[in-house]
Amino acid sequence: MLPRPALSEDHRIRSLPQGESVPLSVSLILRVDPRNAFQARRQLHSCMAPAPRIDVVADPNGHGQTTFIIKLAYRDVDALMHYVMTHLPTAEFGALGTRLATGAAR
Q1: pTM (2 decimals)?
Q2: Residues of 62-89 as b/e, b for ≥16 C-beta within 10 angstroms?
Q3: Phi, psi of 85 (to 5 degrees)
Q4: In a 3-state reduction of DSSP, which class is residue 86?
C-alpha cells in the first residue's frame, strides 16, 4: 500500500477561503503497451486503498497503446504517479483533468 498524505481532504476544504475551490477528484490518462495492459491494470488496482476506478480504452488513436482513464481522489495523485514511474516505467502520462467543488463543505 502507498502512504497517505497527512492532511485529509475534509481539512483542505474547511481551510479554504470562502468562494475558493479545490479539486475533489481527478482523472488521469495513462498509456501502456497492450501486451502489459492486464498486468498493469491489476497493479494499479492493488497499489492503493481504496482502489482507483480504471476505465480501459483500447487504442483509440491507433498508436498501438492501451489507454487507461484513472479516476481517483486529488490527494492520491502524487502517490499514484510515483508508483507508475517506479513500477511501470514504460507507461506514458497524458492529461490530468479535475472536477471542482466549492469551498463550502457538501
Answers
A1: 0.66
A2: eeebbbbbbebbbbbbebbeebbeeebe
A3: -65, -30
A4: helix
